[in-house]
Sequence to fold (571 residues):
Amino acid sequence: MNNDLFAAHRLLAEYGALSDSGKYDEWLDLFSPECAYYVRPRENEEGGFPGALIYCDSRKMLEDRIQALRIASKYNLHNDRHIIGLPRIVGEVGDGFVIEAPFAVYQTEQEGDTRLFATGVYRDRLTRSGDALKISEKVVLVDSFAIQSLLATPL
Amino acid sequence: MLNASVWPTKDYSRVPYSFYHDAGVYQLERERLFSGPTWSLVGLEAEIPNPGDFRASYIGETPIVFHRDDSGNIHAFVNRCAHRGAIVRRELRGNAKDHICIYHQWCYSQDGSLVGVPFRRGIKGKGGYDKDFSLADHGLKKVRIGNVHGALFGTLAEQSETIEDYLGEAMLGFIRRVFSRPVRVLGYNRQRIRGNWKGFAENTRDNYHASLLHDFFRTFGLDRPTQIGGATMDGRHRHCVTWGRAESSHDAAKAAYEGAQVASAGIKLSEQSLVDFLPDRNDDINIAIMSLFPNCVIAQISNSMATRQIRPRGVGEFEVFQTVIGYADDSEEMTKHRLRQANLVGPAGFVSMEDGEAIEIVQRATKAAPDASQVLELGGKGEISDRDYRVNDVPVRGFWSYYAELLGIEPEGAFR
Fold:
């Protein structure tokens, strides 16, 4: 396996584990100082509409999302489980490259009921930073764009 | 059997929880409410700009299609083949000259009239339909459309008030306000809530839950309980718009939100533009949530604007189908601003996501208590009328009043 692909695997594994354990500061550290994060319904992607479910076109906005999640948002009490599929490199850009990886997120509520919450594909622009990779843009393209209940914790 | 005795009070200050759970109630709603003399939001004219454009939608659970024909006229019909009941148009949107059911190829024109059926004369002189079979008798069921400044409402009833009379002058004014310029669809989002659809109709008629449930407002110092505003209803009290004014006398463009920031406990947003208000029109109303009976919400929160369509999916589940809009003549920068502010609304919205949870926990807890009732007394009991303050339950009682009338279960001497 080439180094880029291996590094992308490692990054995605961290991404899922940090999300699921609610370590959002470390999760944020996976992103570049200048970054963007979008959750887009496939319906909008296919229809050519720019609208998103979550639209953070700066790191500041992403930090606000996390801060609001911690201290303001009320949501269904649950645990997330990210199942992230194998990434593939789909392009080279500047000092990095673009990957796509399929994902599924299951949510388990307090009484132990698990349901498939969302499935889709990540389209991530990754930038090399020393030995590591940082996410400079992440587009979470959700197939299951009819959001079950609500979307609070990051996909 | 459901009848007027179900109501503990005549002013709808008590509403039994059975209305969220009873399958018989839901059946009655389908017959008398969604198929009755009501107008439901189905979509926007901006979604079908060109001749031949169509879009699929719903009235209640009934699938419909609205279609702009080659002459530019808008038609709508129930999306259910008159032959064997299949969905005729399976795509959600597109452009077409006609609609052909895949099952047995019955073919309908752009206005839903039946124009062709296979084997009409049989094969080699054998079979076919009887001579008295008339295509004209088997069109798709027509849906009447009311076009209010580009917002399209549909009704399944053959007799009803006009859309203008149904909405009334106050609601028409607020629709005109949002649709003052041609709009552009920025995108869609959908939220599935495991609750009864009326929970959302109530939620959008009660303005005061916002500052209590949606902590985002309070946490970031954005809530202003003193903000001037009110709840305005139509004459029959079935619709409601709750609204608030930015009331920033020296600089409307900076809006109420920013002034209030000073008062917050040092917790600030890093990206303030999320809540900047740049007035779109000649007033300083920065929040207006209009809830139209039975299924429509048109919401302006700061510079984010959206229509929401409540789509019931049985008695215990519904979808909120939200269409986020801007204006066709918005600058690129303004479009970006609206896309950023769309973070406030929808299933992941900073000031809306909680509604999904609130309605679901009501549904869960009330299932075992069909005879217990909710309490709607804020703003006073008795008379149902406009209030010049935001903190009240009265429009929710107005909703139930018209609901009871439509279902034919209005108590004698009830408030309207």
In short: DSSP finds four helices and eight strands in chain A. The helical segments of chain A are 3-20, 24-29, 42-47, 59-71.
